[in-house]
Each structure stands twice: as C-alpha cells, then as structure tokens.
Design a protein that fits this description.
A hairpin with a 7-residue loop joins strand 8 (205-207) and strand 9 (215-217). It is built from eleven helices and 14 strands. The two termini are 24 Å apart. The protein is globular and about 60 Å long. It has a domain at 6-122 and 251-395: Thiolase/Chalcone synthase (Peroxisomal Thiolase, Chain A, domain 1, 3-Layer(aba) Sandwich), CATH 3.40.47.10. It is an alpha+beta fold. The chain has helices at 30-45, 67-74, 92-105, 160-170, 175-194, 226-229, 265-271, 295-307, 324-334, 347-350, 354-372, and strands at residues 6-13, 17-18, 54-58, 83-86, 111-119, 126-127, 143-144, 205-207, 215-217, 254-264, 277-286, 314-319, 376-383, 387-395. Bound molecules: coenzyme A. Residues 90, 149, 160-161, 182, 224, 228-229, 231-232, 235, 238, 247-248, 250-253, 322, 352, 384 line the site of coenzyme A.
Length: 397
Amino acid sequence: MQQQEAWIIDGARLPVARGGMGGALSLMPAEKFGAHLLKELVVRSGIDPAEIDDVILGNVMGAYLCFARLCLLEAGLPVSIPGYTIDRNCASGLQAIAAGAQAIRCGDASVILTGGADSMTRQPWFVEKPATGFPRGSLEPRVLAGGRVTAPDCYGGDSMGETAENVAERYSISRHQQEDLARESHRRARLAWEQGLFDQEVIPISVPQAKGGPRLFDRDETIRDDKQLERMPSLPTIFRQGGTVTAATSSPVTDGAAAVVMMSSVRAGQLGLKPIVRVVASASAGVEPAYMGLGPISAVRKVLKLAGLSVADLGLVEFNEAFASQALACYQELGLTHDIVNVNGGGMALGHPIGATGARLTVTLMYEMARRGVRYGLATMCVGGGQGTAVVYELVQ
Ligand SMILES: CC(C)(COP(=O)(O)OP(=O)(O)OC[C@H]1O[C@@H](n2cnc3c(N)ncnc32)[C@H](O)[C@@H]1OP(=O)(O)O)[C@@H](O)C(=O)NCCC(=O)NCCS
C-alpha cells in the first residue's frame, strides 16, 4: 500500500466563551456548539460528508455515552459516520488529532474530522451511588463537581491550582514573573484580533440569551484590556495562603470548541485539495501528579526524538499555558524563548476549555505557520493528573 501522510486541510474554532452564567456559550450544551462548528467546517472545507470515515473528539467535562457520535448527529452529518471520544484529560483535543493521524497513516481511514469541545460551565454534578443496593438509614449524597481538576488522593489530591503553586515553589518563579507573562498573553491576543489574525480560524455562532433573542458570538470574551490588567497585582492568591498564583495567572474557566479536517495525502491528492500542515509525530509522557504542569517537558523531548528534530528546529510553539508558573518552568527546562511561543496569546488570555484546547492550539498554530512560512511547529500541553502531550506539525505548501 502507498505510504499515507496525515494532512490537515482546514481547521477552525469557536470564539472562546467565559465560563459560568453570563458566558456566551453558557446556555448551550457542548454537543450543540460543537455540532455547529463541525457543520460549518464541513461546509467551508467543501468536502463531501459521505467521504468522512470517522469523527474523533476530545471531551472531558461531559457525561455522555459517546460525545463525538452525539455531536456529529447534532451536526446533521450522515448517520453512517461513526464517532468516538478521547479522554486524555486536558490534552484530549490534541490526542484526538494524534489518533486521527495514526488511523490515516496506517491506512484505516482517509478522511477524519477531529478536535474537541467542552463546556466547563455545564460540567455535570455527580452524586455517588450508595455502596449497597438498598441501604438503610439516611443517605447523604456527596456531590462530586470538579473531580477532573484534582490530582488523585493517593498522590496528594492537589487541585490544579495547587500544582501550579508547587511548580512555582520548585522553580522559584515569583508572582511578578507570572504576572508579566499573563500581561503579555493578553496583549498578544488583543493584537491578534486587531490585526485580523484570528479571522480565518474563528467561526461565529448564534447563541441564545437569558433575555431577548439570540445574538451573534464572534469574538473571544476572555481577553482583558490594560485597564483591567492594572488590577492584577492586587488580586488575592487563590490556591495557597502566602502563595503566588492568582486568577490572573491561571487560565480562566471557559467553554469552547475547535476541529480540523484531516485527510490522507493520497485522497487529498485525488481530490485536488491542498494541505496546510502534516502531522509529523505525537507523544505523551507521565510526570508526578503534584507537578502536572511539568508534563510538556518530557512529552516534548519524546516527540522531538520521534520526529528527529531539536528545539532549534521549531519556528513556532503553541503551549496551553494552564498557569503562568508551569509555562515558565517548561520554557526554562526546554530552552524555549517566549518570542516563538504563543505568539497570538496563550491560555491566560484565551482560556483552556479542557477537551477543546489541544485542537485550538493546533488551529492557531497552523495558520500562523502558514503566514510566517515556518517549517516546523509544535503544540504541547500539560495534563491534569500528571501527563504531557505534544504534536509536531510540518508546513506543506
Ligand atoms: C483561578 C480560578 C479559580 C478563578 O476563578 P474565579 O474567581 O471565578 O475567576 P474570576 O474570573 O471571577 O476572577 C476573580 C477576580 O479576578 C479578576 N481577574 C481575573 N483575571 C484578571 C486579570 N488578568 N487581570 C485583572 N483582574 C483579573 C476578576 O475580574 C475577578 O475580579 P472580581 O472578583 O472583582 O470580579 C479559575 O479561573 C480556575 O479554576 N482556573 C483554573 C482552571 C483549571 O484548573 N484548569 C485546568 C488546568 S490543568
């Protein structure tokens, strides 16, 4: 069989919505806004839906029988298309892309829609069942919310914010350094909008409102202006008394979706479709759960080895920036200079809608690689529970 490469021929995201009531996507379940993105992306890319072999999506916050299948049905795609959902916690959207590339490279599929969608706002509450079928006495339901964002109890049970404090302490990263990174993240994201750099990647969506008719949501609502950022030094630390991490130096709770159309080089050639990037290699690695923010260090080293590249070969990097402290520690360990990382803003400005983020990084990265003519780009992220995931892309033009 002819060797297949996994090409991305189109990709897009929704604008990122602030989490919680009042956020633009708060009145929509993730499968509804995810479906809107898939539908619009398929139309925009011009592919025949009947060509799609599979839909692979990351989704972490929901409680679905199969989120990807639900999403593709909501999108009105043919019932003959199967779908499956990936859970590598924070890196689920990136892992979904890696899984799509693997299926294409081994010849199991020719066209795959892949990415992720998540509503942190609408994360369900779980109530544990009683241990016995018909218990006697009174029951006290224990509601479990946010279980996804703590390390397991056997590894200290730290919340993700506490793991950011652990990293800041180990690497002596000051609050001031974290705030500088946060300020720059917002500045770059604002500039990207002003310069029209997000126009190609963002697909608007009509959203319901608590009062009045629907409105068009077409711009990230998490980016702050200079006036708002002035308050940063006065914010309280949230996760540890006497700590350094604040709401400003954490990625905000958000809702969002991002997806790409992936195609084998052979099928794209037959259809006369041009790729933007090809997936070169992907890798994940595990680290101590209490230092989950350091996950990208080993994942990046692993993926670069697989790709036969070094950090010096990378022209652009998209990094999830869950917290400023973990981003700074990883840049230091990997020898990454911030001028090639998150050039259009990072998670502190653009949020981290868990299962969608890896695809959001990929979409932002590939358009910027194309604009700058950068040959190799990397998307990488830390993962709650103590992992890192990384994917290397090569520009194909
Ligand atoms: C950090 C966190 C707890 C903050 O939640 P929150 O308190 O609801 O956040 P808010 O957006 O309301 O911010 C709190 C305050 O800080 C202010 N603030 C937030 N970011 C700011 C910034 N960059 N500059 C200035 N002020 C800022 C807000 O305006 C708000 O002020 P107010 O209380 O006067 O209204 C939450 O964003 C979080 O959990 N983030 C991490 C999510 C996570 O773990 N993801 C997984 C990663 S692995």
